[in-house]
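Example S7 (structure tokens).
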């Protein structure tokens, strides 16, 4: 195998995201080479302002790949694209594709493409986000024509009551554990026909998904990174090569459609 002849995927990630690159490399295996660029650090600004800044700088940031030929680019930050709504997100990705000279998709658009390919119309949203951003995410999927059956919030630390307690729950996708994900899902009764969508590229999900596949082998499981890796292989025309079992599972399901 000529390592440097493989299709090339560019990935743009938030600066503190510890999850996207490892998951993309595990998911894609030996079939694609992954190259990354990071959004700028935005000290002293709130979450929403930070996400808006990401959208503002993204067109110029794609230029940081220079003359490197890429076969596709994934913007691995779901939250910033939720702010745009489905139509705005799609138009933005089309504009970015023209600028970059190759297909560019946000992780949100990759999820929508996967839902269409899998025939998914109902979701249960598993979210590590603050409640306002979770609500924005839910509105995005509903405006895209999907039914959100319920939302499973996954805080990094639960809220506690009382004068000496910590108060509100703490939300941080980057430190959510596999055990926390599984515990919150097991506390819910899920409709049989709802797909589980784990939103956000920063919450590590591969171990949790592997456990859920063993428990419910027929349920559709989607994540921002899994759907993006599926889209990248598809758009780059990759049909073989070693890849993660979760990606093989998703590809088999889409072929059956």
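Recovered sequence:
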């Amino acid at each position: 195998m000529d390592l440097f002849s493989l299709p090339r995927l560019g990935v743009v990630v938030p600066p503190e995201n510890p999850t996207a690159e490892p998951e993309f490399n595990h998911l894609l295996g030996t079939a694609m080479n992954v190259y990354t660029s990071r959004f700028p650090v935005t000290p002293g600004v709130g979450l929403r302002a930070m996400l808006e800044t990401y959208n503002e700088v993204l067109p110029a940031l794609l230029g940081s790949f220079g003359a490197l030929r890429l076969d596709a680019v994934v913007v691995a930050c779901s939250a910033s694209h939720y702010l745009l709504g489905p139509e705005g997100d799609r138009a933005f990705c089309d504009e970015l594709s023209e600028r970059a000279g190759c297909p560019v998709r946000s992780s949100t658009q990759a999820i929508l493409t996967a839902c269409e390919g899998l025939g998914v119309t109902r979701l249960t949203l598993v979210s590590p986000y603050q409640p306002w951003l979770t609500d924005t995410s839910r509105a995005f999927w509903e405006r895209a024509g999907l039914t959100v059956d319920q939302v499973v919030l996954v805080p990094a630390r639960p809220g506690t009551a009382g004068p000496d307690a910590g108060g509100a729950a703490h939300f941080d996708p980057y430190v959510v554990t596999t055990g926390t994900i599984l515990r919150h899902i097991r506390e819910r009764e899920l409709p049989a026909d709802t797909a589980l969508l784990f939103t956000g590229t920063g919450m590590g999900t591969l171990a949790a998904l592997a456990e859920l596949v063993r428990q419910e082998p027929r349920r559709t499981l989607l994540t921002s990174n899994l759907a993006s890796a599926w889209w990248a292989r598809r758009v780059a025309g990759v049909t073989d090569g070693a890849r993660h079992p979760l990606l093989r599972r998703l590809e088999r399901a889409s072929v059956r459609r």
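Notes on this example. The chain has ten helices and eight strands.
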